[in-house]
């Protein structure tokens, strides 16, 4: 997973153009969206509700891809796959790592 | 009906939830009438029971009708339960019968029953009998949908629709004949029934023959058309955005890839012809440029912008798509899930829909099916917004009525290109 870039700014530029204020707005919105979704994923995992874990991961993956948070998007795909195959051990691992990925992307946004 | 003593069925299909200390009289009646029944006092156990047993029939007997409704809402919203087909019966006091009736009349719940005091135990049994029949039918229908509908490709789907409409015609004709018969019987006062029936039967036969001939004719045309378009299927647009030109005639379609140089060269004569035709159309359109059209009386009218509905649960991505479309002079209607999209569909005259496939409540494929089947929007182009594609998925999308797809995320140019292609195709048709 480490070979995947944390953040690719080109993605958002190709989607909405080089409008920096708008890009900043979307970045903030994405970070805001991450918090409740991550909580939702963790809660659903604890309740053993794989479908909910998968749905929440899919939801966040959409904006992660659009914003260019590449590693987050890849991690969320892994979470979806593990939830689908009911691989609890890997699922837990990826959910824990998603926290780090989100932290990393926040740092990249500030740079 | 035999008396059953099954107050503790292991897999009850019927649950009664009450908030009263004493078990109600209704519980006794139901337990004697139905095998798969259990009663619970409202609380953690009742929530666990709803979750575990997924009852098809839920009877709610709280202190008031309002409490029952609030309890139901909490089951659905807070506990995310009852997402399966089910029906609810309100048990209420005699004083609140009017209110319970009004709630059921609004379609909120299936029916109500006055359980305090109980006067009509057979009415309760009758409600349960009706529900048992109704829900057994619903379950069968769901199974048919899940198991078979997904296996149908677009070609067969379209034919099935045609057969259904053919059957609907016959049913209407028979109904018409029945009403004519009744009217004629009333007027003639017992005329010889054969005299009345013969011309009607001939008429039905003629119409059936005509419908069948048309059906077979269309079947042949569609088959030819499918074979022709199957060849063109693999050369529409790029791998990120694609308009599925026509429905394949079998499941063995090839997933189109970005045209490689060699493939494109093989198909050049056809592509050239298509390009020439497209150029001609562009020339013709230039004559009507500057967004103005002449109205019937020569008054210059502004061409109204095309309306596009974006159905996407992720508000960030929905907003991005919206901004891109508005930037290209499209009018955008937003919906965050399938249910909202269906509501919006009836309010607006749409030119195109961009549909996320994975959404809570009602997903994109089922929303599309609803659009096509129940709203009569057979020609409305619908492009899927998706992060995934493979051969099986494309076949499934086509059979559900999706016309094309846009990969998530695509560049602004590719999104606009896919939208314009979809709109152009409709214009040409």
Low-confidence stretches of chain A: none
Beta-strand proportion of chain A: under 5%
Large-scale geometry of chain A: elongated
Number of strands of chain B: 13
Ends apart, CA distance between termini of chain A: 22 Å
Describe the sheet with the most strands of chain A.
Answer: none
Shape estimate of chain B: extended
Classification by helices and strands of chain B: alpha/beta
Can you give a write-up of this model?
Chain A: Residues 19-111 form the HPt domain. The complex is a heterodimer of chains A (111) and B (429). Chain A has 111 residues and is mostly helical. Chain A has one domain: Four Helix Bundle (Hemerythrin (Met), subunit A). Chain A is built from five helices and no strands. The radius of gyration of chain A is 14 Å and the shape is elongated. Chain A starts with 8 loop residues before the first helix and ends with a helix. With 429 residues, chain B is of the alpha/beta class. Chain B has three domains: 14-148, Rossmann fold, CATH 3.40.50; 154-234; 241-269 and 287-428, 3-Layer(aba) Sandwich (Rossmann fold), CATH 3.40.50. Chain B is built from 14 helices and 13 strands. Chain B has a six-stranded mixed β-sheet with strand order 6-13-12-11-9-10, with helices on both faces. A five-stranded parallel β-sheet of chain B has the order 2-1-3-4-5, sandwiched between helices. Chain A binds chain B through residues 11, 14-17, 22, 26, 29-30, 33, 55, 58-63, 65-67, and chain B through 312-314, 316-317, 320, 323-324, 356, 358, 360, 387, 408-412.
